[in-house]
Specification:
Residues 16-253 form the ABC transporter domain. This is ATP-binding cassette domain-containing protein. GO terms for molecular function: ATP binding; ATP hydrolysis activity. The protein is α/β, with parallel strands linked by helices. The chain is 37% helix and 23% strand. It contains ten helices and ten strands. 37% of the residues are buried. Bound molecules: adenosine-5'-triphosphate. The site of adenosine-5'-triphosphate (ATP) has 11 residues, from strand 2 and helix 1.
């Protein structure tokens, strides 16, 4: 039986369910059996070293990559069972923000944020688009900058405009891939607060990849650690950072020596 997102809203499934997810690129077995369930409006932060498979995992959540084995269910819908139209509708429930904001440099801030609105709602009037763009800029704490071009923005501002574009279609699920990388500690805290604010205003489920421990502490309800393609440790935010799990401890303390290094050398 074919599924549509609307078929499943009343289901008692977890909102997001990933079961025994595997992904290989040739001989590189990147995801080696990822399992996680995420509830509606939860905020999960994924920590992990370079090459652990975090971005590949995020791509599976939004259906940009499909599982070799296992399942990724969003509100009961399996990406692998979706036809093109269903894929389009399911993907519209996501808002994504990548490193650097990924803005279109040839468009001003207004047109960057209006871009997904115009594409998804062809009949929207100019005034409706203007209202929504202004609302999104308010939410990310940057009202009144719609006429600026990306080249006139600082790194932190570009990220916020990227956030504003990600929430233009009022997504239910927000994905952030290293939203604060390369920013100073103050701007990192400001952006982490913006993420919390956006999540609360949209009541969105949020999944964030970050290397920044302080940002993780601010954003997360739950933290998970990815290591060599598996989620090796997870805990509520308040207990995660006190864990004695040796791999997590090495990562949090930034030690060059430890079980994570030993495992990487053996690979
Ligand atoms: N499209 C692709 N084709 C082939 N290999 C890929 C592809 N995307 C990712 N990989 C490989 O998958 C592995 C995991 O990459 P991924 O980007 O998910 O790591 P990550 O945990 O996000 O690391 P980082 O923190 O450095 O961004 C790497 O070995 C990478 O080379």
């Amino acid at each position: 039986m074919s599924q549509t997102p609307a078929d499943t809203t009343a289901s008692d499934q977890p909102f997001i369910k990933v079961a025994d997810l595997h992904k290989r690129f040739g001989a590189n077995h990147v995801l080696q059996g990822v399992n996680i369930e995420i509830g509606k409006a939860e905020s999960v932060v994924i920590l992990g070293g370079s090459g652990a498979g975090k971005s590949v995992f995020l791509s599976h959540l939004v259906g940009l990559m499909l599982a070799d084995e296992g399942q990724v269910l969003i509100d009961g819908c399996d990406w692998k069972q979706m036809d093109r139209k269903q894929t389009y509708h399911l993907r519209r429930r996501f808002g994504m923000s990548f490193q650097e904001g990924a803005l279109f440099d040839s468009l001003n801030v207004f047109d960057n944020i209006a871009f997904p609105l115009r594409r998804a709602h062809r009949t929207l009037k100019r005034g409706e688009i203007k209202d929504r763009v202004e609302e999104c800029l308010e939410i990310v704490g940057m009202p009144g900058i719609a006429n600026l071009t990306p080249s006139e923005l600082s790194g932190g501002m570009r990220r916020r405009v990227g956030f504003a574009r990600a929430i233009a279609l009022e997504p239910e699920i927000l994905l952030f891939d290293e939203p604060t990388t390369g920013l100073d500690p103050i701007m990192t805290s400001v952006l982490s607060e913006v993420i919390v604010d956006m999540r609360e205003k949209l009541k969105a489920t949020t999944i964030t990849i970050t290397h920044d421990i302080r940002s993780a502490e601010m954003i997360a309800n739950r933290v998970v650690m990815m290591f060599q393609g598996r989620l090796v440790h997870e805990a509520p935010r308040d207990t995660f950072f006190a864990t004695q799990d040796p791999i997590v401890r090495q990562f949090l303390d930034g030690n060059a020596k430890g079980p994570a290094t030993a495992a990487l050398i053996k690979r």
